[in-house]
Amino acid sequence: MPIDAAKALAAEPHTGEISWDRKDVQLYHLGIGAGIPATDPDELRYTLESRLHVLPSFATVAGAGSPGVISGLSMPGVEVDLAKVLHGGQSLTLHRPIPVAGTATATGRIAAVHDKGKAAVLVMRTEVADADGPLWTNDAQIFVRGEGGWGGDRGPSTRMDPPEGEPGRTVERAIREDQALLYRLSGDYNPLHADPDFAKLAGFERPILHGLCTYGMTLKAVVDTLLGGDVTRVRSYATRFAGVVFPGETLRIRMWPQEGWVRVAVSAAERDDAPVLADTIVEHQ
Predict the structure, then answer these.
(1) Do 186 and 224 touch, CB atoms closer than 8 A?
(2) Would residue 188 show up in a list of annotated catalytic residues for this protein?
């Protein structure tokens, strides 16, 4: 069996140093659609170094994602075909606001292995801390098709009941034709997001947008719409990737605000609201 759950969970974590500066932050913000309109004071907080703050989802690319999901998939106990791997979900917990520039230690390990029958689910956890203490914890839920069925723990269900009632707020965000080309400069150079021939081999009519780009665009929309543009209010952010997005499309982002948290659903407006992000929660202060 390619996945040895006990061996994977017992493996020594991968640890490495990561660093970032304001240019990395600005590039990430541009990659998720910030800066439109370019002179809007609210957008300048994402683009102008003298006013810069850091959207928490930057944590998914800080230090180019090192030690990263791919390195985790090569850890002891895990030998899988990358063609069978799907990024199923992402969760982020903030321990304090992310500085505009920093150096930190990232420690990556497999935190859980679940047996879903027809697939295995690996929870890849990355914990990041600097000299002042913990900064953030990232969990990536990775589905590996065809690797389940060994009788292991199924793990918790991530599916939630549909939101009740009409959303409190709905916004739309246009995705530029070159959005994936810009976003990939933050570290994810998978040709699926740029090369039409590669995308066709993978079963798509054209290159698709990075799921984590949609993840960042959605958090920015919630922060700007409901949290007064204050990125420091975000405490955690979790989602399940439910479908693909193509550059040039429009994200329809529906929000159901609650006390201390927001339920969110994201769809592709031009494709009859095909689901893109589901079971999405932003917790805030």
Answers:
(1) no
(2) yes
- 193 belongs to the catalytic site: yes
Mean pLDDT (whole number) for 243-261: 98
Catalytic residue selected from 114, 193, 210, 284? 193
Select from 134, 15, 24 the least CA-distant residue to 66.
15
Task: Write phi, then psi, for 41 (nearest 5 degrees).
Answer: -55, -35
pLDDT of 144? 84
pLDDT for the residue 146 = 83
Q: Whole-angstrom Cα distance, residue 137 to residue 135?
A: 7
pLDDT, average across residues 136-150: 88
Distances (CA, A) of 162 to 109, 157, 178, 275, 278: 32, 14, 33, 12, 9
Residue 241: how many other CB atoms lie within 10 Å: 23
**Token digits for 80?**
């899988």
Q: Which of 24, 29, 53, 188 is catalytic?
A: 188
